[in-house]
Automatic annotation (TrEMBL):
Residues 100-265 form the Peptidase M48 domain. PANTHER family: METALLOENDOPEPTIDASE OMA1, METALLOENDOPEPTIDASE OMA1, MITOCHONDRIAL. Keywords: Hydrolase, Metal-binding, Metalloprotease, Protease, Signal, Zinc. InterPro entries: Mito/Outer_Membr_Metalloprot (IPR051156), Peptidase_M48 (IPR001915). One of its GO terms (biological process) is proteolysis involved in protein catabolic process. This is Peptidase M48. Its cofactor is Zn(2+). Binds 1 zinc ion per subunit. GO terms for molecular function: metal ion binding; metalloendopeptidase activity.
Length: 294
C-alpha cells in the first residue's frame, strides 16, 4: 500500500511538472496586445545551441549569396529602406523578450523571386526582393512583414517547435536543413544541407503561433509609428497573388481569411498605439492607403 501511495505521488508530481513546463498562464499586464509569457517547453531546446546554429546558417547564407552575386549591396536603396524600418522597430522588441536587447541584429536583402522573409533566432533578418517587388509593399506593409517575422523570433516559436519534436541531439541536427524548414529560407541561397530540409522536419508554425506573430508584430510596428492596418492590406495582397501562383510563404505561414478578421478585431487596441506614436488621436488618423499589385 505504501509503495502504491508513493507511486501515485510520483505520478502526480510528474503530471504537475509536465503542466508547469508547458507554459505559465499568468497574464502579462500591459497596454496594447496582451500575450501570455513564453512557453516553458522551449527550455528543452538549449538557447545557446539554437542561436549558434542560426548564426552559422545565416552567416553561410549571406556568404554564399555574396559569392553568387545575389546579396544586395550596402548601397542598395531597398536594403537601406529595410534597415531604416528595422531601426525603428527593434527598440520596441524588448517588452516581448528582454533578451532581444542583447541580440546581434542583422538585416540583409537577397535577390530572389521568392515571396518571403524571415527572422532567425538572435535577430537575423532576411528579406527577398520578390516579396517587396511582387507585392509592391509600402513602408507600413514592409513593417508589418518585418514585425511578424521578428515576433516569431521574439516569442521563440522556432525553438519551441524544435522542443516539441523532441530534438535533443541538436548539434549537427539543428543545422541549415532544419532551420530552412522552419524559417522558409530559400535553399538556393544556402549550402547543400538546406536542399535536404524535407528529409529532416517540415515544421510549420501553428495557427496559435501565427496568430501571436500577427498581433505581436503589429503591436511593435504600431509602436514604431507604422500603420497596423497595413497588416490587413498585406495579407489581402498575398491572397490575391497566391490565386495566380502558389506562394512559398504559405508553406511556412498558413494564410486565410480568419487571420485577417482577427487583425481587424484587434484594431481597437492597435490603432491607439499607432496614434500615440504619431502624436495624434485615432479619430484624426487618415484612411490607410495601400498600393496595387504590380
Amino acid at each position: 500500500m505504501i509503495k502504491l501511495k508513493r507511486l501515485a505521488l510520483c505520478l502526480t508530481l510528474m503530471s504537475a511538472t509536465s503542466l508547469g513546463l508547458a507554459q505559465d498562464n499568468s497574464p502579462v499586464v500591459q497596454d496594447g496586445i496582451a500575450v501570455k509569457p513564453l512557453s516553458r517547453m522551449r527550455v528543452l531546446a538549449p538557447e545557446e545551441q539554437v542561436n549558434e546554429a542560426a548564426r552559422q546558417q545565416y552567416t553561410e547564407m549571406v556568404g554564399e549569396a555574396k559569392q553568387k552575386g545575389v546579396l544586395a549591396s550596402e548601397g542598395d536603396p531597398q536594403l537601406k529602406r529595410l534597415r531604416v524600418i528595422a531601426q525603428r522597430i527593434i527598440p520596441q522588441t524588448t517588452r516581448w523578450n528582454p533578451a532581444a536587447s542583447k541580440w546581434e541584429w542583422q538585416v540583409n536583402l537577397f535577390k530572389s523571386d521568392q515571396v518571403n522573409a524571415f527572422c532567425m533566432p538572435g535577430g537575423r533578418i532576411g528579406f527577398y526582393t520578390g516579396i517587396i517587388d511582387q507585392l509592391n509593399l509600402t513602408d507600413d506593409e514592409v513593417a508589418a512583414v518585418m514585425g511578424h517575422e521578428i515576433a516569431h523570433a521574439l516569442r521563440e516559436h522556432g525553438r519551441e517547435r524544435l522542443a516539441k519534436t523532441n530534438v535533443t541531439a541538436l548539434g549537427a541536427r539543428v543545422g541549415g536543413a532544419l532551420l530552412s524548414g522552419i524559417f522558409g529560407v530559400d535553399p538556393n541561397l544556402t549550402g547543400t544541407a538546406a536542399n535536404y530540409a524535407g528529409q529532416f522536419l517540415v515544421l510549420k508554425f501553428s495557427r496559435d503561433e501565427e496568430r501571436e506573430a500577427d498581433l505581436v508584430g503589429l503591436d511593435i510596428s504600431s509602436r514604431a509609428g507604422y500603420d497596423p492596418r497595413a497588416g490587413i492590406a498585406l495579407w489581402r495582397k498575398m491572397a490575391a497573388l497566391n490565386q495566380s501562383a502558389p506562394l512559398e510563404i504559405f508553406s511556412t505561414h498558413p494564410g486565410g481569411e480568419t487571420r485577417i478578421k482577427d487583425m481587424e478585431a484587434h484594431m481597437n487596441v492597435l490603432l491607439p498605439l499607432y496614434a500615440r506614436a504619431k502624436n495624434t488621436s485615432v479619430a484624426r488618423l487618415p484612411a490607410y492607403q495601400s498600393t496595387a499589385l504590380k
